[in-house]
Design goal:
This protein is an alpha+beta fold and about 375 residues long. Helix content is about 30%, strand content about 30%. It folds into 2 domains: about 250 residues, Zn peptidases (Aminopeptidase); about 110 residues, Alpha-Beta Plaits (2-Layer Sandwich). The structure holds zinc ion.
Length: about 375
């Protein structure tokens, strides 16, 4: 039902893939997107976010339809310098030395092609907003700092999941981080080790007692980094580790955190050391029902263009978590990207086309 200009879509994607855009250095890709959407009826504004910007694009649209928001992020993980996209008859890869950046430029290419398609063919639509965030890959920073009162839409479709187009993420976890800092007592390691309390040993003992890995079907924990000590001839006075806890269930995240707190404090005390704990909530989880309006619109829009929706749960966070927290009903949809965050990343051409159809279909389905 939509005749997608696949050649132009692929060119938009590969143009953007070639632009290096690590987190906080999105200036060049932002200018590319701004130039691409300079069309009648389209307004775009940069919204400052620290040393970078988020980008809000708006199509005015006819009254009577609910406003809808689409979102994707423009930063990528590394290595993302001098990406050379290789286009075959079915897929696009990098040359194997870098990521491709389909996470999440595939979504942005779909948005740009949808905007062009609308301006050429006059697809009937209400108010449409596209929010392109910066610094997503470094803790959702762009979206966290975006003032959502600038948005009209109360329903949002974030295209930032991997796999073939059709996947709908209904649930994503709560996520907290904890820093455990053990303070022991320094002493000369050769002359008077008895006087010392080795913080590295204490921390090692603590870590062996912590819940780790998959805790249950909706909860995980992981010690990610560890540091400490000054030299081999000093009994280490300090050691620290940073860990994370995730759960689809907020209470389980909190109870896992208290297990960790108790184990850390108790073990440190047994050694005569101290353990201080800093905790931060990185983002809140969300849970959307299959029958919620936002999920119904997504699956109906997919069915209209011949794509079978599949409902899934994610173990990762995205800008979707932040939007839901801000009171905007948001779900995460797959944008076709595969093997993301690796030099084996690729995207199928048909997913680029299908994703564009889904964007257009959601815009028409919105009511
Ligand atoms: Zn992403």
């Amino acid at each position: 039902m939509y005749r997608i200009n696949a050649k132009r879509l692929v060119k938009t994607f590969t143009d953007m893939a070639k632009i290096s855009s690590p987190s906080w250095k999105e200036g060049e890709i932002l200018d590319y997107i701004l130039a691409a959407v300079r069309l009648p009826g389209v307004t775009a504004r940069k919204v400052s976010c620290g040393i970078s910007h988020n980008l809000l694009i708006t199509l005015k649209g006819a009254p009577g339809k609910r406003p809808v928001l689409f979102s994707a992020h423009m930063d990528t993980v590394t290595p993302c310098e001098k990406v050379r996209p290789v286009v075959s008859s079915t897929r696009i890869t990098s040359d194997g030395t870098t990521i491709l950046g389909s996470d999440d430029k595939a979504a942005i290419a779909m948005f740009i092609e949808s905007i062009r398609h609308i301006s050429e063919t006059r697809v009937p639509h209400g108010p449409v907003e596209f929010l392109i965030s910066c610094a997503e890959e470094v803790g959702l920073r762009g979206m966290k700092e975006f003032d959502t009162s600038l948005l009209k839409a109360k329903h949002a479709f974030v295209f930032d999941s991997d796999g073939p187009v059709g996947k709908i993420i209904l649930r994503a976890p709560y996520h907290s981080t904890m820093t455990l800092t053990v303070t022991g007592r320094a002493a000369h390691a050769g002359m008077e080790p008895e006087r010392g309390i080795n913080a590295i040993n204490v921390l090692a003992d603590i870590i062996t007692r912590l819940p780790c890995g998959r805790i249950d079907h909706e909860t995980t924990a992981n010690v990610g980094t560890i540091s400490g000590g000054r030299a081999t001839n000093i009994v280490a006075e300090q050691a620290a580790c940073v860990l994370e806890v995730r759960s689809l269930d907020r209470r389980k995240m909190l109870s896992t955190e208290s297990l960790i707190r108790d184990a850390a404090r108790k073990t440190a005390t047994q050694w005569g050391a101290r353990c201080s704990i800093r905790r931060a909530l990185e983002y809140s989880g969300f849970s959307i029902g299959k029958d919620d309006r936002i999920a119904r619109i997504a699956s109906e829009a997919m069915a209209r263009v011949g794509i079978r929706p599949s409902f899934e749960v994610s173990g990762g966070g995205s800008d979707t978590n932040i939007l839901n927290r801000a009171g905007i009903s948001a779900i995460n949809l797959s944008a076709g990207m595969r093997n993301v965050h690796s030099t084996k990343e690729y995207i199928m051409l048909r997913d680029l086309v299908n994703g564009t159809k889904v964007v257009l279909s959601i815009i028409e389905t919105m009511r």
